[in-house]
Amino acid sequence: MDILKLLSETFLDWKAIGEVLPKMFAVGLPNTLVLAVTSGVIGTVLGMLLALMGISRNAVARWIARVYTDILRGLPPVLTILVIGLGFGPIIKQLTGSTSPYPLAIAALSLMSAAYIGEIFRSGIQSVDKGQLEATRALGFGYGASMRLVVVPQGVRRVLPALVNQFIALIKESSLLFTLGLVAAEREIFQIGKDAASNSGNLSPYVAAAIFYLALTIPLTHFVNWIDRRLRSGRPEKKEPDEAAAVVGKGAQA
């Protein structure tokens, strides 16, 4: 019983949780979503560019994409965040006069996600049967038009679950931005929980942060599963009007 009481006091101090919840709702949740969505959009654009460079006929473009992807995927996320956030911070300050690391936090997440999203897009595009490209070329389409109108859309559709999974990873990786020392109004969920835990000497604020992350990621995980099932099974075929009428007629006779 003493152990249960100790665990309850350590992780389920409702007073500490209640004190941190308003700030998590008002500050942490919006910032986490802004960081994840903004870096997700930028990372998707850069990732598509990397994917097209990776399958390009130009050897230099393929080499640049390969080196970028290998480096950004090979480094630990926290190291990339520190190198970009702290390494380029003084340069940004000198150019703009701004001391906020928020833009650099978005840049770090965007550059990291681009490396992964680029590989997702590349694998999806290359999974499309080569006959699709050959058929469009036979119809008179150029290479660029064939890729833009036929091959790339099919490849993107096939990797939608992986793209949503990458967005889930971005939500979780935003917790590493506490290393940049975001100002109070820019802090995400984890840093608010961390600050509250440090002030109270109790781990319950971390539990509150975990609940917020789970509330964001679990629905997205089920959404990924739903997309995957739809892509695997395909949409149900629509019956022709006369077939549908025949089915209705049989049901009425029965």
TrEMBL record:
<feature type="transmembrane region" description="Helical">
    <location>
        <begin position="33"/>
        <end position="53"/>
    </location>
</feature>
<keyword id="KW-1133">Transmembrane helix</keyword>
<feature type="domain" description="ABC transmembrane type-1">
    <location>
        <begin position="29"/>
        <end position="224"/>
    </location>
</feature>
<feature type="transmembrane region" description="Helical">
    <location>
        <begin position="167"/>
        <end position="185"/>
    </location>
</feature>
<keyword id="KW-1003">Cell membrane</keyword>
<dbReference type="InterPro" id="IPR043429">
    <property type="entry name" value="ArtM/GltK/GlnP/TcyL/YhdX-like"/>
</dbReference>
<feature type="transmembrane region" description="Helical">
    <location>
        <begin position="74"/>
        <end position="92"/>
    </location>
</feature>
<dbReference type="InterPro" id="IPR010065">
    <property type="entry name" value="AA_ABC_transptr_permease_3TM"/>
</dbReference>
<protein>
    <submittedName>
        <fullName>Amino acid ABC transporter permease</fullName>
    </submittedName>
</protein>
<keyword id="KW-0029">Amino-acid transport</keyword>
<keyword id="KW-0472">Membrane</keyword>
<keyword id="KW-0812">Transmembrane</keyword>
<dbReference type="InterPro" id="IPR035906">
    <property type="entry name" value="MetI-like_sf"/>
</dbReference>
<dbReference type="InterPro" id="IPR000515">
    <property type="entry name" value="MetI-like"/>
</dbReference>
<keyword id="KW-0813">Transport</keyword>
<feature type="transmembrane region" description="Helical">
    <location>
        <begin position="205"/>
        <end position="227"/>
    </location>
</feature>
<dbReference type="Pfam" id="PF00528">
    <property type="entry name" value="BPD_transp_1"/>
</dbReference>
<comment type="similarity">
    <text>Belongs to the binding-protein-dependent transport system permease family. HisMQ subfamily.</text>
</comment>
<feature type="transmembrane region" description="Helical">
    <location>
        <begin position="104"/>
        <end position="121"/>
    </location>
</feature>
